[in-house]
Write a structure and sequence with these properties.
26 strands; 15 helices; 9-stranded mixed β-sheet; Rossmann fold; 5-stranded parallel β-sheet; 524 residues; alpha/beta; globular; GMP Synthetase, Chain A, domain 3
Amino acid sequence: MEQAVARARQHSAGDLLHRTARRYPDKVAVVSGERRVTFAEFDTAVNRAAHALVERGAGKGDRLALLSHNCWEYAVLAFATAKLGVVLVPVNFMLNADETAYILGHSGASGIVAEDALVPTAEKALAIAGVEGGVRGWIGLSGGVPAAGWEDVGVWWSAGPDSAPEVLVGDDDPLRLMYTSGTESRPKGVMLSSRSLISQYVSCVVDGGMTEDDVEVHSLPMYHCAQLDCFFSVDVYLGATSIIVPGPDPAVLLETIEREKVTKLFCPPTVWIALLRHPDFDRRDLSSLRKGYYGASAMPVEVLRELLRRLPEVRLWNFYGQTEMAPLATILRPHEQLERAGSAGKAAINVETILVDDDGNPVSAGEVGEIVHRSPHAALGYYRDEEKTAEAFRGGWFHSGDLGVMTEDGYLSVVDRKKDMIKTGGENVASREVEEAIYEMEGVAEVAVFGISHPRWIEAVTAVVVPKPGVELSAVDVDAHVRERLAGYKRPKYVVLADSLPKNPSGKILKRELRAQHGGLATS
């Protein structure tokens, strides 16, 4: 009786596609390359893939790694595993074999699906991790035939039962194991459940202005929960149309917006900047675009103003959060963009956010504190790491590791990651404040500010600046500019001009690489 009632009440992430397919069976769900798939066809493919996985020995609680760029197959497997209660382990396609092997070993993955170009990396990783047997799925994005021992996943949904597998998936059964890119030597496995994900989807819909009429292009990596869960899965939940492209190439994005009449786009600030600087930006018809979202890092205020000026019909939202929040925590809405420029907004509808000191005590408005959350969005914890779980959830709040300031009326400004706060000469300097000041220079395209070791100042404020194309800048120009805007201790001791900044596939600037590259400036 209890099981029958539980099945009747089930509302897991794997159920969402089926329910949407019943509402909009003939509506286009996914466009990927030449493929255009309705929701009914999408649901059938997912059901068949789920049965195929069962036939190959995968069952509830097993872990299946997925190593691939964005594609139709990624979408199918994300929902097929969810229907079975199989824990999907998305893997960053930029990782090498050793790094991938760590994730395979730590997660206990019993199988893997890999894009054809990444199969050699997968094979090396499997050998290093000592994983034998299990599923070996091959995604043929580059053409050719599967390598020996690998099976084309397209076979899994070319035939088989069309009905959903009968698996009872509870609200807090883990469905995803997302490995953080983090600053530590080894990434942590963040466990997300249907409760985490669906609560987060609802917050995105309500506070993010999302509807079934949206046509969205997905270009950021789906191995990251920002693209997969703030946007793609929400579109599936609502019945919106998703255009999947392999990556955030500016020319491809702009052409896709024009061709598909895209209405909705998410990009981190670095990609928005790349779009604004691309010669096709003013050549393409972008008039269909109505909703723009940014996150992953703060949007420079000058770039925000440029976006609003050049795309006047587009409403913008700032999504702030992290993987452990599935990932949304706070939102800055369209009408607040200029009035509250630089703010991360207010807590989403299913989130409670406060700031605390090092002892866990709430701080007053206007004081710097660590950003902490209570929410059903929150992860179940870190897989196989009780110590880090206890530390992150101490006091009954999830501790983000970010520092912020909150106004009396609840608007949050993220000061910095704790690790990015520069301690120079006994004073704290927020790298973001210095970046904002440099972004006010007319010829600056991008900037990253960080601290490097210094024999006198302990840490020295350092800036790497990328000029706009055709603009000549010097370190002297930058210094003269910030002299008028920042206190002496906040001004960069070192300014480096560069052609580009290192970024991960999610568009985040890799300050750890910049620290390593320029760490010797103080001794040279």
